[in-house]
Each structure stands twice: as C-alpha cells, then as structure tokens.
C-alpha cells in the first residue's frame, strides 16, 4: 500500500475576514491536489489566525472567542475534503465542551465524515495562558489508505501514547504542531524521530510559521514540516523523506509505503517493535 501525503507550513498573518482564512487554506489544498496527495496535514492552532480579524471595535479576539468559528471551520474543511477527494487533517481547532476549551485535531474524510482527537498532553503555557483542557482518550482512525493516529505537538514527546497508537494499529502518526522558538521546535522534531524508530511507523509533522502580532501566545512561530521514517536500509539514511525550509510559507510532499514498514518490522536491521521486553516493563495491548 502506497499513498501520498503533503504537509503545510501554514503562514500566519493578520487577516480581515473568515473568507481570507478560507482562501488561504484552499490555496494549500489546491497545491496538494496538484501533487495528487491523498492526505494533507495542517498545523496545530492554525485557526488562531481567525482571532486576528478582531471585533467591531478593532480589538483582537481572545481564545474564548475562537470556538464561535467551529461550525464555519468544520463546514469549510468538510467541503474541501469532499470537493478535492482527499483526507484533510485540519490542524487543530479550539472547541468548547461543557464550558471548557479543548485543542482538537480534526480528520475530514472525502465522504464527508469528520473525526476528532483532542490533544492529550497540555503544556504549562496552554494551561496558564488559555486554560486549556486535556483530552481523555486515544483513538486511531481507519481510512481507505490505512490506519492513522493524530497526536498533537506535545503529545509526540511522550513515548507511551505513541506506543498505544501503534498497539491499536496505527502505521502513520500525523502530528500537527505549533512552537514559538528553537527549543520547542527541536523537542518536537527530535522526539518525532525517536517515536518513528521505537515503533517503526511514519510520522508526518508540520508547524506554523509567520506571526500574529495582535494575538496572545501567537506572536512568534518557529516551524518546519517533515515526513519522517524509521532508520533502516529501505528508508533514507537520516529517516527523512522530505522536509521544508525553516519558517518559510510552503508545502512538502512524499510517498509513504506501508509494505516497507511491515518488512522492517519482520526482518529489519533492528526489529524494535517485535523486540519489546514486556517481561521487564509494561506493554499496551
């Protein structure tokens, strides 16, 4: 099984309307369509761009206003997925449930279905700055191209949750991310490589670039997309199928071959998934 994935280094800048956001999003999706991508990944928190629209008095919106765009966002990306016939991981969008905010990754299927995965691990700044709630469970998602998981940014830094995703059958981890400096970026990037090696899975990673000068916690972004493989002979020596240029507005694309994953799990130079010492440490069933 082979399929093509694209990852968007989404450029954040001040906009004037929801239509501006829609046009920019569709630009990337049309670029992915030109590359004949089956999946396209947007970054974490890319919908915070909507906060820059401001209110009637010209003041920037707050994080508590962002869930008001949820219906428009879902309708927009559901329409894109159906129109362009691709799976879209619509980054993450902040929603409100029972008075609490959650950072939720959305998978839009070509047939109109929508699946969600709330971010499970919440950073200190997301708690203190935005009072963000944590997701309570992990799901994997069946698609016509294989089984995937959506783990957002900080989630990838926890080996247990990725091991759970692999145990549930995920072969590809899509990781929308948003980091504001080199330290945060490299934490996510390095651990994405570690998770690919540990679990013999692909990791598709991207982040925001640009800036939102009027939006709290989004004034700085440091991002780069990467399509990451296990480190074994069938794959590139650095475990990279593709990567973007740091902090540039762009999209990257590569083909994922699931058969290569199955081969290295069975008879690779190392067989990290099979060689787990579950007699010495817990495992996930």
From TrEMBL:
GO terms for molecular function: acyltransferase activity. Residues 3-258 form the CN hydrolase domain. SUPFAM superfamilies: Carbon-nitrogen hydrolase. Belongs to the carbon-nitrogen hydrolase superfamily. NIT1/NIT2 family. This is Acyltransferase. PANTHER family: HYDROLASE YHCX, NITRILASE-RELATED. The lineage of its organism: Bacteria, Bacillati, Bacillota, Bacilli, Bacillales. It holds the Pfam family CN_hydrolase. The keyword Acyltransferase applies. Keywords: Acyltransferase, Transferase.
């Amino acid at each position: 099984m082979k399929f093509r994935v694209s990852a968007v280094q989404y450029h954040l800048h001040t906009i004037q309307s929801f239509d501006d956001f829609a046009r920019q999003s569709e630009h990337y999706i049309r670029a992915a369509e030109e590359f004949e991508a089956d999946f396209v990944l947007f970054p974490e928190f890319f919908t915070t761009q909507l906060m820059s629209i401001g209110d009637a008095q010209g003041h920037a919106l707050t994080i508590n206003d962002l869930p008001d765009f949820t219906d428009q966002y879902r309708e927009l990306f559901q329409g894109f997925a159906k129109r362009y016939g691709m799976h879209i991981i619509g980054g993450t969008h902040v929603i409100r449930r029972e008075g609490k905010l959650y950072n939720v990754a959305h998978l839009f299927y070509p047939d109109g279905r929508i699946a969600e995965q709330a971010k499970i691990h919440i950073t200190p700044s997301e708690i203190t700055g935005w009072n963000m709630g944590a997701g309570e469970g992990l799901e994997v998602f069946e698609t016509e191209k294989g089984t995937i998981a959506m783990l957002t940014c900080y989630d990838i830094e926890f080996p247990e949750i990725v091991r759970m995703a692999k145990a549930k059958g995920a072969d590809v981890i899509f990781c929308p991310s948003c980091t504001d400096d080199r330290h945060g970026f490299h934490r996510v990037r390095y651990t994405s490589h570690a998770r690919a090696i540990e679990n013999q899975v692909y990791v598709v990673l991207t982040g925001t670039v640009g800036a939102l000068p009027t939006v709290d916690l989004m004034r700085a972004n440091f991002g780069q997309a990467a399509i990451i493989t296990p480190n074994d002979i069938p794959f590139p020596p650095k475990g990279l199928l593709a990567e973007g240029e740091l902090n540039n507005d762009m999209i990257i694309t590569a083909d994922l071959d699931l058969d290569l994953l199955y081969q290295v799990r069975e008879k690779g130079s190392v067989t990290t998934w099979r060689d787990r010492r579950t007699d010495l440490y817990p495992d996930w069933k």
